[in-house]
């Protein structure tokens, strides 16, 4: 049993190095050789943990998604409705150094979903989960009287998801990225609008 724990710990360490390299240098620059070097392994040693780069990229995306979900769970603990919606989305939007780096992992992953069915399935599962969770929080907000807009909850959830995903692009592209304060102001304006009849 200790060997399994050790192997999983090493996989996590490699994934931590991988997502940070991909986020700071780009997916193509993060070669298996570079990842192995940064993680302190001999070239070729990563094959014991990940069959190839696609497997490593897939695992890195899952790792980032799990980290985001862990933060969402912590941020929304004890909250419901609109307060929980806001806390949830702030953890998805690239408003901090960590969430900006995570967004830079998601962007190249999305491009892979076009040609890779496995990546497309992983992304779809992640988005479907968030759609369900956002819809549940919107339903709570209606119960609390904080959402009175006539737009159906599944449409509102899609709008919130589109805003968060769009900001991952706008806040991570070179030039004039959307500042964190503007992102939060956009979210607050949208949430305030949900009270409209």
Mean pLDDT across all amino acids:
89
Structural class: mainly alpha
CATH class: Mainly Alpha
What's the multimeric state? single chain
| Annotation, overall tally of beta strands | 0
Uncertain segments: none
User: Approximately what portion of the residues adopt beta-strand conformation?
Assistant: under 5%
Q: Can you summarize the main beta sheet?
A: none
The CATH homologous superfamily is named Tetracycline Repressor, domain 2
Roughly how many Å apart are the termini? 58 Å
Rg result: 19 Å
Number of helices: 8
What tags apply to this protein structure?
197 residues; mainly alpha; Tetracycline Repressor, domain 2; 8 helices; 73% helix; elongated
What is this entry, summarized?
The protein has helices at 2-25, 32-39, 53-76, 81-92, 97-113, 117-143, 153-170, 180-193. By secondary structure, the protein is mainly alpha-helical.
What's the layout of helices and strands?
Elements: H1 2-25, H2 32-39, H3 53-76, H4 81-92, H5 97-113, H6 117-143, H7 153-170, H8 180-193
Helix pairs in contact: 1-2, 1-3, 1-5, 3-4, 3-5, 4-6, 4-8, 5-6, 6-7
